[in-house]
Amino acid sequence: MKLAIATNNKHKLQEIKAILDGKFESMLSLGDLGLDIEIEETGATLEENALIKAREIVRLTGMPALADDTGLMVDALDGAPGVYSARYAGEAHDDKANRQLLLKNLQNASSRSAHFGTAIAVCYPDGKYLVSHGRVDGRIIDEERGENGFGYDSIFFSDELGKTFGEATAEEKNAISHRGRALRAMVALLNSQID
Ligand code: IMP
Asked: Distance, CA 20 to ligand 1 centroid (Å)?
């Protein structure tokens, strides 16, 4: 079976393909499918947004589709930026501006604990769907560290790894990350469907 992946983010694609390797005949990004679109994330939760994106790609391609939605939840900010993580500093979806605004808003915070959450949805043309979740805990440090990854990775310190996600290799991050965990949970769901 072929699977459409509802993203053009090359980092996300690498992470998704590394973990789903061998599960599908081929995995095609929006670019591979000739789709130059931005799907509006109007849901109130990560799960709703993942389902909105996957269903739209099923509608446009007629193929099974996978979408993920991720948020960074910071305890001192009552869970913000959460579902608004991509647009925290404005509609431009500027990762650097988002990180800078978060560091500014945490300047006087007594706690810096945070977690990433991911919801993954796989939707099929017949309307059936599967949803999985993943979470990783850590804290927001007060300066950027590391050149790897994307988004909030360089300011998210993982106690499990003893470094930021920006300093981690792709393998280290995938082994414990929100998206890695959600994808492995999805693999288990897909396997249980076949059995
Ligand atoms: P979305 O899932 O693409 O909507 O991402 C929401 C926001 O979280 C964007 O600002 C992304 O850059 C950021 N983000 C998504 N996944 C990760 C990750 O694995 N590490 C760091 N930031 C991420």
From this structure: 19
